[in-house]
Design goal:
- It is a single chain.
- The chain is globular.
- A seven-stranded mixed sheet has the order 10-9-6-11-16-13-17.
- The protein has ten helices and 18 strands.
- It is α/β, with parallel strands linked by helices.
- It folds into two domains: 100 residues, CBS-domain (Roll); 224 residues, Spore Coat Polysaccharide Biosynthesis Protein SpsA, Chain A (Alpha-Beta Complex).
């Protein structure tokens, strides 16, 4: 489907929009400027605008809904949002550029094909998700209709990244059996840990991989940012490792008191906000790094520190807070489901 048929420029006249709406199904247009989303426009929006004294010669921007309630950052997210109240979901990137319009058909979103291999660390016990992980390994815990690992893999496939190397340990036979039984076939190479090697040590088992760039991600994070932009950043800056980090803002729900010497009040900060970057456990890595990793238990942040001491360049790519979905904690599971599938 050509999603361009649903786009109308901000300075187009309302009378022209009426003709366009009659030709598309569903009957909705999205107002844009330089392909960036400005608002949505239905015949109801136009009717209300004209009844309030507007004119058909006015621009569509005057009549449109400038705050659409439903926008998505991926096809899977859009699928979950579409229901009886919403007939079309615009899919946008972090700069609000329109990538596609989802109307119920699983058309392919325009993506630059990266063809970069993906390594997924799926070997941990997922203790933060007890008691679920006493029965199911973390990668198979469902979020909506799919387990988390498939959400991650399908996101990469949107960018043409369909070569997966999955590091497994805890309940690994259950994970392998799941992939044997599902209808969709993935290009998977399995890497077995014989003993727990932490969030980074399992990479030591991949020494046979080509000396090439690859994505590395933990099996509890889903990143909805633009992967092609991340790769471009990594290459442009000639990084050996790029950490994908998320901006986080935390509000302390109390007044914070500063006290100076002598127990004298210095200042009161009422419900202060603190902003910082946090590690999402997604990385872009140059293959030469694998030669440095010993086969022993090691978390990847420790490996990063080791590489920095060797003079390797480590960059940080920041994504918006809303672009990082983390299911590592029980409280986040439902938030992830709502984000992917809607209410």
């Amino acid at each position: 489907m050509n999603y361009q048929q649903y786009l109308i420029k901000e300075d187009a006249k309302i009378k022209d929009a009426l003709k366009r709406i009659d030709k598309v199904k569903p009957k909705i247009l999205f107002v844009s400027k330089d392909e960036k989303l400005l608002g949505s426009l239905t015949d109801g929006d136009i009717r209300r605008y004209l009844m309030a004294g507007g004119n058909v010669e006015d621009s569509v921007y005057e009549a449109c809904n400038r705050k659409p309630k439903k926008v998505a950052h991926s096809l899977e997210e859009a699928v979950g949002m579409l229901d009886g109240n919403y007939i079309a979901i615009p899919i946008i990137d972090k700069k609000k550029k329109i990538l596609d319009i989802y109307t119920g058909k699983r058309q392919s979103v325009r993506r630059k094909k990266l063809n970069v291999p993906v390594v997924i660390n799926a070997g941990g016990k997922g203790t933060r998700l007890d008691p679920f992980t006493k029965i199911l390994p973390k990668p198979l815990i469902p979020v909506g209709d799919l387990p988390i690992i498939e959400h991650i893999m399908r996101r990469y496939e949107e960018y043409g990244c369909d070569q997966f190397n999955i590091i497994v340990n805890y309940k690994k036979e259950l994970i392998k059996s799941y992939f044997k039984e599902i209808d969709k076939q993935y290009n998977v190479t399995w890497t077995d840990e014989e003993e727990p090697l932490g969030t980074g040590g399992g990479l030591s088992l991949l020494k046979g991989m080509k000396d090439e760039t690859f994505f590395f991600i933990s099996c509890d994070s889903l990143i909805l940012a633009d992967y092609s932009d991340i790769l471009k950043f990594h290459k442009k800056n000639q990084n050996d490792i790029t950490m994908i980090c998320s901006r986080k803002t935390v509000t302390i729900p109390y007044g914070i008191v500063d006290v100076k010497e002598g127990d004298v009040l210095e200042a009161i900060k009422e419900k202060p906000e603190y902003s910082f970057l946090t590690n999402t456990a997604m990385y872009l890595i140059e293959g030469k790094i694998l030669k440095d990793i010993e086969q022993k238990k090691a978390d990847f942040p420790d490996i990063i520190k080791m590489e920095q001491e060797k003079g390797r360049k480590v960059g940080v790519y920041a994504v918006d807070e809303e672009d990082w979905l983390d299911m590592g904690q029980m409280s986040e599971l439902e938030k992830m489901r709502i984000r992917l599938y809607g209410e």
